[in-house]
Design a protein that fits this description.
The protein has 277 residues and is α/β, with parallel strands linked by helices. The strands form two sheets. Strands 2-1-3-5-6-4 form a six-stranded mixed β-sheet, with helices on both faces. Helix 4 crosses helix 5, helix 4 crosses helix 9 and helix 9 crosses helix 10. The longest helix has 16 residues. It binds NADP nicotinamide-adenine-dinucleotide phosphate (NAP). NADP nicotinamide-adenine-dinucleotide phosphate binds next to helix 5 and helix 9.
Length: 277
């Protein structure tokens, strides 16, 4: 019998996870299928119980259910519980355990261009769910400084207060962060500014950017946001959101199957889905 995997979200039609995981099942000769399910918030509990009843081996959870799923799981690991969001669920004999692989996915992806986090001064731009996963994961790595700039500075403050790992951090408005750009080694852009329809907009002026800086934008469509383009023009090393996306999926795949999959193959699959853009 085919093993069942899934992703729950709303909307879900855009998700690149089914094709990425199904390609891995064929690569590893696994009799398995990964299906997308569009689930309304009021149906989430039934959907989760349905997957448990049908013996799904595991599933992903995406926007807008990453936090709302928590009460319907049997256990949530410590990092996911502190982040307050789950993107990966493992089903062992009917017991559902939730994990968050977004932050670790970001960390694994960035290791290709950054050797150490602990000697970095980092600015995270944005304070939403993705920023939360990334900030908590990086705070644990003991950077020299990790600040958060956000449109709503109260959300950045709350994020810092909620983090169980102590880090040298302050919350900034975008206006406060602008003149400080030259003081950071690493920037992680986590807002949706740069995605359609805001493709020409930038969250922060990079005029004072150091050319030794590393600038990441976790958006992957477009592959190069205006923010990344400007950082590149100023000589910074840049990375888009493909690496984070692929590694969060790889970590989920490993939890379900015990296999850490072929990252290059996953990247090619995702780039193919994006039309090789
Ligand atoms: P979210 O929880 O809704 O957070 C959105 C963040 O963007 C908040 O900080 C919000 O600021 C800010 N923001 C939204 N509109 C803004 C505007 N017009 N001007 C300034 N700031 C604005 O979203 P999320 O789940 O963190 O996702 C954020 C982005 O990350 C999305 O583009 C998503 O596709 C991407 N993402 C990528 C990956 C990957 O694997 N590469 C994984 C997850 C997410 P306020 O606090 O002021 O509202």
């Amino acid at each position: 019998m085919k093993k069942l995997f899934a992703v729950l979200g709303n909307p879900i039609g855009h998700s690149m996870s089914p094709a990425m995981h199904n390609d891995l099942f064929s690569l590893y000769n696994m009799n398995a299928i990964y299906l997308p399910f569009q689930v309304k918030e009021e149906d989430l509990k039934d959907a989760v119980n349905g997957l448990r009843a049908m013996g799904a081996v595991g599933f992903n959870v995406t926007i807008p259910h990453k936090s709302k799923i928590i009460p319907f799981l049997d256990e949530v690991d410590e990092l996911a519980a502190s982040i307050g969001a789950v993107n990966t669920v493992v089903n062992i004999d009917g017991k559902l355990t939730g994990y968050n692989t977004d932050g670790l996915g970001f960390l694994k992806g960035i290791k290709a261009i950054v050797r150490e986090i602990k000697d970095k001064r980092i600015l995270v731009i944005g304070a939403g769910g993705a920023a939360r996963a990334i900030y908590f994961t990086l705070a644990k790595e003991n950077p020299i400084q990790i600040d958060i700039a956000n449109r709503t500075v109260e959300n950045a403050n709350r994020l810092i207060e909620d983090c169980p790992f102590s880090a040298s951090s302050k919350a900034l408005t975008m206006e406060e962060a602008g003149p400080l750009v030259g003081e950071y080694d690493m920037f992680i852009q986590t807002t949706m500014i740069g995605m359609s329809p805001k493709i020409t907009e930038n969250p922060l002026d990079l005029q004072n950017l150091n050319e030794q800086s590393v600038v990441c934008d976790i958006i992957y469509n477009p592959l190069e946001t205006s923010f990344l383009h400007k950082a590149s023009e100023r000589g910074a090393t840049v990375q888009n959101g493909i690496d984070m996306f692929v590694y969060q999926g790889a970590l989920a795949f490993e939890k379900w199957t015990g296999i850490f999959p072929d990252i290059q193959r996953m990247k090619e699959n995702v780039l193919g889905q994006l039309g090789g853009k």
